[in-house]
Amino acid sequence: MEVVGPLASSPEIPFPRDITYRNALEYIDWRTAYKKKSGKTVGRNTAIFELKTLAMIIGEAVRLGHADANPLVSLKLKKDNAAKKPELSDEEIVSLRSALTEEPEWMMIAFEIALQTGCRLRETRIPMNCVDFTENKITFPSPKGGEERAFSIPMPTALRPLLERLVKERRKFTLDFPFQPSRRWQQFFIKVKLSHLCFHCLRVTCVNRLRRAGVPREAAMRLVNHASDLVHQIYQREKVQDVEKWRDAVTFPQKCVELTQ
Asked: Does residue 148 have a pLDDT over 50?
């Protein structure tokens, strides 16, 4: 097994037993400073994830006798706070729909399903036998968390024409993914000059529009398959306009004192 890359001062570390805790700390500095061909650098959280993956590999090396101990077993490296994914505006939704007409069909299908249901990218590939037009519902058989987290929701009216077309076309699934679909979306957002967005913004948008529509939190959590209030709250993007109607909800017995110079 060979670990390649400047984890330390030498360009290569040929054997698992040669890796040290100091290598891991130096790797964080190198990885976050190294510029890719695109000119971008990798974030600290990505570097930490890579080290945790390497720690698993070294653990297997220890079990196989290729290393005496695993110096990466408990790194305790603090991650950076991830930037909050923004909610899509009406203008952005219109612009993205227009741009998607020039892209492969699977992207438009995934976009509409995620926008209307708040599901994750991988969940937009729905088996057509999980779309029930009689009971007017959609079942997500393998959401995040596995099959035991399978759930059903009422079919959004706006999605019905699309789903009916896919049935007529005898599709087995709503769509089929190409290689690295998340990467394809990242490239698309860069192409349309909206690189601050990502596909998961569709889930954020759905959650917040449910809230603004007055949908009770319990019902909204059920619709997007959130297991806890804390997780659901992370998606909230409150704006001043959201509470504007309660501006004068509290009144007092006299007018405000007028201030004069």
From this structure: yes
Cα atoms in the 13 Å half-sphere on the side-chain side of 162: 21
Q: Would you state the structure tokens that stand for residue 123, as one six-digit string?
A: 């969940």
Q: What is the CATH number of the domain that holds 112?
A: 1.10.443.10
Instruction: Find the distance separating the first CA and the last CA of the chain, reported in whole Å.
Output: 78
The closest of 110, 174, 167 to 133, measured between CA atoms, is 167
- Alpha-carbon distance of 145 to 163, in angstroms, equals 25
Question: What tokens appear for 122 in the block?
Answer: 């991988």
For the cut 70, the answer to whether the pLDDT of residue 110 exceeds it is: yes
Which structural domain, as residue segments, surrounds residue 160? 90-238
Cα gap 237→255, rounded to integer Å: 33
Give the separation between CA 237 and CA 85, rounded to whole angstroms.
9
Residue 246 inside a domain? The answer is no
The pTM assigned to this predicted structure is 0.67
Q: Indicate whether 136 belongs to any domain.
A: yes
Read off φ and ψ for residue 22, nearest 5 degrees. Answer: -65, -35
Residue with tokens 């959401």: 143
Helix and strand counts by DSSP (H, E) for the chain: 9, 5
Q: What is the DSSP letter of 83?
A: P
* pLDDT recorded at residue 234: 53
